[in-house]
């Protein structure tokens, strides 16, 4: 029988601590190479990165194994690594390095006795070490690696796999029993004891049926690597815990390593479990065992880590790990095992168990029942009423007055109504309680206990708690017309007040619906398939934000709300300029719909009123208005106007801009982010000038004054060649690049040049106009220049399709030479009154000033972040049109494109809607509704700071 390590014969494992000098001396003696060394951490071995003397390229990692481990065990580790490399070639694993004397693996006679030394390859890449955030893709990658290694070792055999390690989850209970009495902290002993007892009870029924095989059992954040520039790990290192054990232990260990990372919860591990299951097809018993094993792993980590530090006080690696090891245990026990097991089955697509039934008779005879709709789309929540704490009670009293015997707001359904503190965004949005109002006082029969203002009813394992404004709590009489809160649990397991959508069905399955206890039917909403149906029926190029988008069904001010009742902060939506669902705008549109909505050839007052209002915001000469439906139509019409008025087909446009998707507006759009072939495929009547980007363009900083003369030269050259341009179109503030101000005087110079040759200046104000810049209502005002034609949309409709082109009368009249102009719904009665209402709100609520004040505060805070985080290259913009540009290098300005996308995804998880912009998609386009408050922008900056600090 092979002599292998048995942890229980030697609980204390002091790490070898050879000095650098001794390591260097023995290395040259045994392996024939002079080296430099760099210490690495380990809990029970001594690991050292080694370099040939004077080289900066690693030779490998020297592993000085703890002397308690036999040569057979070391051979087994190397053989397991070789097997994984052969059977799962996509997984990078380290092999033994060969030197001038062959394989560098030997026993050393050291000052601390015989120690086995071997050099394994230094696999390139970065670990996931620390507690930074792990994205779902990274977590999935961890699970896939764990599954691939497990599959590769499925039939691996070796005499040393029978070793008994403290990390082998088959022995976790015995390890805990050994170490727990040695733990000096009584509070810690209590936490671990309770956790372990719960896990033991859940594990006991399935232990005997769990599949056993050789496994790695340490595919964790510390022991995987991601290649340079990659996000997802693809390498596994350190086979030191290889042994034969329960197969499910591999994924249990991997899951545990996810739980201490920033923002992690048990459901954060579901992507890893799904990836593992795809490769290993976990049995029902393994799913039952999974979370108990995660808890036992956490308990062993806590006790072992604390014991190791007591034995080996100089072991910094073990000391630093203590906090995260306790976080693993805390998270593992944060949700009851039955709930996590049920949620995991659902996440894997396994059949769910039936919802817990109600065995007894109904505690109430409800009479006529009215269920209040409190979900996101409920009319109760219109006009911001969802933020009013009295909304629900008023609705309930109204129903009681109308003859209802009982009024309820159901459990397990999104309950937006009554949300009073929407930011920062919370993920636990699903209520577990049922709200109840009764028409008459009603007694509850049965065993009841009164404590702390709550009445608790018990029958066997069933528990109901009822809280509210009781007049006589001890009598168990429920008062009439008062809000009561009914919650249902089972002995020792009462759900929290709110849970996440991912766990709601599992909690309900385990604890049941409180409504059935009072005679109400238990209803379950149908699965939401709207995203799948969208993909089936809409064109693929009509994209949506995010790979897995929330389903947004309500907006209010700067808030967006999904169907689960989660409130997001909208920091990207300049379409909803005066805020989502502004009451004045809603009322204007609704009233007009009751009156008239038809095409714009009819005579009605609204179109005149609106055209006068928008013209009044512009210089006096710009007095004639065309109304259309979108920014694309507006810029298209502006170009056609210039062509018709001048009789010339040629147009000059700035590169890297986006103006729309119609034929003409797309032709002058040369942003490679929107069309990678834009410059190569534009028609010959479009002539481009350099993007006047003073941050990353051809001319930077003070040299940006050179953009205007070069643009003027292009305009002059066209005229000299006999093709004078009919017009020049530019954004007046470089919005597509992230809100970059044009160099001072740029528009004055280029406008003068185009006019000198008889052309017209077109200002594209679609993105930046209408007070968004704070200091200026229109972007061209920042340049002290006046265009001939202004195109504007987005903000002017507050979400209604509305665009406008404003020009001089003589230019507009010349369009007649090409025929007539007609837009069926451009300037329709509804669009016109909505446009007027938007202007009302901007003026009456001082939203341009709000953009200046709140935007100034926001920019200062973002600039402060730039001093803290190197990824921020600069902060562009003015007012509430800002751009945060991310770069990998402040000298080369290499765009941090992948990072920007990942940052946006992480911000979404934190409840902030944000998207990238710019040709390299490396700029956050910060353009929230103009009503955004200082408090809300602080939430955004704090979230961005967290993302940049803890990872994305």
How would you describe this structure to a colleague?
This protein is α+β, with helices and mostly antiparallel strands and 952 residues long. It is 35% helix and 17% strand. It is built from 26 helices and 37 strands. The strands form ten sheets. It has a seven-stranded mixed β-sheet, with helices on one face. It has a seven-stranded mixed β-sheet with strand order 26-32-31-30-29-27-28, with helices on both faces. Strand 30, helix 21 and strand 31 form a beta-alpha-beta unit.
Summarize the structure in short.
By secondary structure, the protein is an alpha+beta fold.
SSE layout:
Layout: H1 20-31, E1 35-40, E2 46-52, E3 58-64, H2 71-87, E4 98-99, E5 102-103, E6 105-110, E7 113-120, H3 136-152, H4 172-179, H5 186-203, E8 212-215, E9 224-225, E10 235-236, E11 243-246, H6 249-258, H7 270-280, H8 284-311, H9 316-332, H10 337-347, E12 369-371, H11 391-401, E13 406-409, E14 430-431, E15 434-438, E16 442-443, E17 447-451, E18 454-459, E19 462-468, E20 477-478, E21 484-490, E22 498-499, H12 501-511, H13 530-537, E23 552-556, E24 559-562, E25 567-570, H14 583-595, H15 605-615, E26 624-628, H16 631-646, E27 651-654, H17 663-667, H18 678-681, E28 686-689, H19 707-720, E29 727-731, H20 746-756, E30 760-764, H21 779-782, E31 789-792, E32 803-807, H22 809-814, H23 829-844, H24 847-868, E33 872-878, E34 881-886, H25 897-909, E35 912-913, E36 916-917, E37 923-926, H26 934-950
Parallel strand pairs: 12-13, 25-35, 27-28, 27-29, 29-30, 30-31
Antiparallel strand pairs: 1-2, 2-3, 3-7, 4-5, 6-7, 8-11, 9-10, 13-15, 14-22, 15-21, 16-20, 17-18, 18-19, 19-21, 23-24, 24-25, 26-32, 31-32, 33-34, 34-37, 36-37
Helix pairs in contact: 3-6, 3-7, 4-8, 5-8, 6-8, 8-9, 8-10, 10-12, 14-23, 15-23, 19-20, 24-26
